[in-house]
UniProtKB/TrEMBL annotation:
It comes from Vesicomyosocius okutanii subsp. Calyptogena okutanii (strain HA). Pfam families: Homoserine_dh, NAD_binding_3. NADPH binds at residue 105. This is Homoserine dehydrogenase. One of its GO terms (biological process) is threonine biosynthetic process.
Amino acid sequence: MLLVNIGILGLGTVGGGVVNVLNKNQKQIIRRSGNNINVTHAAVRDITQTRICPTKNIKLTQDPFQIVNNDDISVVLELMGGVGLAKNLIEQAIKNGKHVVTANKALIATYGNELLALAKDYNTHLLFEAAVAGGIPILKSLKDGLSANQIELVAGIINGTSNFILTEMHNKDRNFQDALKEAKALGYAEANPTFDVEGIDTAHKLAILASMAFGCELQFNQITTEGISNISSEDITYATKLGYTIKHIGIAKKLNDKLQMHVRPTLVPTTHLLSNVNGVMNGILIKGNAVGETLYYGAGAGDEATASSVIADLIDIIRNTANHDIFGWKSLINITKCNTNSIASIFYLRLLVTNKSGIVKDIKKTLANYDINIEAILQKKINQKNDLHIALITNLTNNSKINKAVTDIQKYDYIIDEIKIIFVETLN
């Protein structure tokens, strides 16, 4: 049995979780890997800080380059986060002949193409299962379990913070700010939650999923991204009455050799399994042309959940079962992004109007000018002035037509506020 020395960059939540799981499941991991894994060094910001894991047998340093330049270390686990320094450290580790495992979705989404090519040049491995959906082995499922399929759709709730906020708004009739405050109090949201609530974190993960699913180069900058901060408690309520749940979803589809990728709040039918992925949990729907629909559910974050994926990659490297195929493909292709104006969708509209006769007739007529019909509609009086909310679901149309129709409707003098538009996904 060989002794494999490991160096960890960052001994916070995930790094500490890795050490704890390695200790807790030591016998199981030895049986699976055939080797003894020994964490010898860890780079940290503050050596004196209290850790969530034992560090008695780990040499701590504040210089991360001591880890990547240490000849006795075979595998480096990059769990520190950030992009600039992490990229430099991974490059140095690879050039020194070390394998690397990372949970850094921002880094992979931004620089994954070149880092994976570098690893291939130096005959080392760079694995990143934990970068997407924490403990859910979704990348291995795409790369291996679904490799016989032509993937048609990837749709995921892959940010626990935004999902928790929308769940709180739905279950407890809270507004966005109150739900965000609760998420922060429970440790589910950062002090600055922009990456989570505005969809950037989900876009990082979606870029990786799309590359795995469709064999294309990473295209993070091509993803249309919209956050949830403008979702109101009224939208949550009206969506429910119309038979939908609002979720923050990342979607990638291949349509006529073009790629549609977006992150946005979306109305999902309450009958669909994804509508029941609640709290901080993650859920990912993958549709293949042979297997049909498959759904993956689990913890998308957390110390030991994420550590589970990190260690699974580590075991693959030790077993020599990892390969150099970039994103699971022998070669990658360029796929053109779809024109967003031509994207077909159903839409939810919410209007705030001064109540008067003929409003619904006007709306129907204007929508009909663009071949748009109303499939469902509800009205609610909201104040003593007799103002109304009108919420409706359209038939299948496209982005260009709905925007033109809404522009025309917005001109009516009884429209009080900007009309809210939210995409509806049946996920068929």
